[in-house]
Predict the 3D structure of the following.
Amino acid sequence: MKFGIVGYGSYIPKMRIKTEDIALANGQNPSKIKSGIMVNEKSFASKDEDAITMGVEATLNALLRAKIDKYKIGAIYFGSESHPYAVKPSATVVGNAIGLDDFYTAADLEFACKSGTAAIVVSAGLVKSKMVEYAIAIGADKAKASKGDILEYSASAGGASFILGSPENEIVATIDKIVSLSSNTPDFWRRSLEKYPQHLGRFTGEPSYFAHISKVVEKILDEEDMKPSDFDYVVFHQPNGAFPRSIGKRLGFSSKQVEVGIFADNIGNCYSTSTLLGLTLVLDCAEPFQKILVVSYGSGSGCDAMILTTTEVLSLKQKLAKTTKEYIQSKSYINYFDSLNNI
Amino acid sequence: MFNQSPLIRWRKYNNNYFLEASKCQNCKKIHFPKAYICTCGCSLFDKTILSGAGKIVSFSTVNISTEQFVEQGVLIIALIELCKGVKICGQIVESKIEDLKIGDFVESCFRKISQNGDDGIINYGIKFRVKI
Amino acid sequence: MKIGVLGVSCTKFGEHWDKSLSDLLWLSQIEALNDAKISPKDLDLILVGNMCSGIFLGQQNLGVVAAENLNVNIPSFTVESACASGGVALRSGIISILSGTSDLVLVSGVEKMTDVNISQATTGLMFAASEELEAFNGATFPSLNGMVARSYMHKYGLTREQLASVSVKNHRHGALNTLAHLRKEISIADVLNSQIVSDPLTLLDCSPVSDGAASIILCSEKFAPKNDKKLVSIIGFGMAMDSLSLQNREDLCSMKATKLASEIAYKSAGVEPKDIDVVELHDAFSILEIIALEDLGFAEKGEAGRLEAEGKFNIDSDGLVVNPSGGLKAKGHPIGATGVSQAVEIVKQLRGSCDKNQVKDANLGLAHNMGGVGASVTVHIFKRED
């Protein structure tokens, strides 16, 4: 049975903080930072925004595109590293905000930066098995990093939402294959009562991000008997602007395939939203019958790799809600010191 | 002085989260969030959902806040006329007061309104931003 | 219909650090009783107008406090209608006499606001507005009035300077009133340059937070002294309500409740606006005086600002004098006390017993008290016997 994405939406907060501002405040060299991690500025959520509010905005956009009977939504899964509550699901606040009635299943997920794609995997299972007609998978984060940490330059905020279903005349992109990888890797973590995450510096690179992504891409291409050139686009998790370009090149993808989904240069790393946001960028401009490889990475660690094929329906739905590019371009700047009072 | 019960907010989630209103079964007048008796005398209503698009009727600032809002700094509070002639009180975000005028078009957005301390329930609701 | 006023009193309004609420209440109760030359056991009923004693002080059941102050067991209870608590308490006293249940009624209003900090006071004041629709969103009383001011200025072209002239006049009157909280004269520039509280309203557009109490002793015709030329009676009264929240109002630039209440009061008194010599109206914020002047029939719609700026309502005016006490702005605004203190001021004006703020030849007076932003309004009309 074919199934896939019937609606998608994103949300990026309006404010931006420049890398220069953070570097000068921390006594670091801005141009070295920029060339190293390829992040010029990042999105910054205002005090009255959190993962839930951004998840709601993204889901409202997804509903605009989906054009379905929302009362047929049978599941909501919400992945985040910054759920406002340790106990009380973000997913049901979203369900209430979009006006659902009571009969749906819901839960919150955590798997570092891949909790958003994890939500897609779970939703896919429920839709494909016909347990539910439609399911919503959300990734949203208001990321925090401690002062002076390199992550301060990239930890940003955003939300993305995908509605999965099976009616062929509604699907904008079929989900053809999912291969996941999970391991127990201490590259990046946050204990439950701690405010900021910790990480093992350079260990988060080769042995973590690069090794896991390489492994899962090799596996999915092998299982589907496909090669990099079979794809029109590839979207990797983007903790900064440098990593996805680097892994793309290493695995044999062209910059033409990689660049469309890149936003980290100007938005930073919105954690659970990251891979999903890259996918929305691609869907906003893709044409029918194009192939997309989506590979997320979440510390701890794991990957969800997915092969999607766009449909003719995509062209009819792209403009029904604000595009990710419109969110990227709609911005105002806040200086670093004001931002410290605005968390 | 005291923390308000989250139940006061819970009863209004549908109104505050997605602008659920009441429509008189007799004259179709819309009341937000609800009325017990319509101006026409009818006391039967259907639920309806309002669009968050509207126009600024008036606005002001809150420079000295109530206890729940002290940490939020200066707020812009406004009366917004939603389509269908219903007015709602809400904050305007992402704008400076000097850039606002009566009659400007706005759209709704879902935001945190307040919370009962760092360990209390978070109160969500609708705020407004200028439509570009 | 005539209700006699036997006695009045008002404490100084301001910051009474050393006095509790029941201290303030007692001071005004005893002074009014002395003014009326009656003793507590002559009374049939005690009423206390108050809004925030529970939330600010942890004490409600003020009717019991008032009765215990005077060592009596007669009926005694609190009346609450936000900032109109005093006016509604007065109305309740009148109705008790008209019903035949009472002959002598002591009506007090009292509020103690300075034991809490500014954000607590701001929170308490918002109990007068809609909790669900306005306070929930972060609105404060000044901001609701700021929206009213902006709307009025937009519709009628009221200038910032014209609006400021209201506070300038009221401060001038307050400087002449020994009981006023604020006794310093101010200028238009002072108002414009003071701290923004809720744009466009500045600190000097807003009444202060005050402690105080006021009392009035009402009597039935049977108990009114005969041949007392200085006896003041209440000859008309009206009350009306409007929606709790501003969003449900038809017009932000007019208070329907004031119009309705005053129409009833004028009709019951058999008088018209042009007959009134002196008025104490509810200027919790400068814009409310502008709007009240029009709603009470003292100015055409859109004209009150110009007339204020021209000094038409000043103490030395030949025509109507507005807020000779200094109004809520300079006299002060202890919420529950205000409505009663307005009545006390009118009675003193009509008796001719005021000091430097005495209005000449005042025969007919009107007191206008408002709860919320025009949500509940009382209007009382007073006349001197001769």
Q: What stands out?
A: The domain at 3-117+209-223 of chain C is CATH 3.40.47.10 (Peroxisomal Thiolase; Chain A, domain 1).
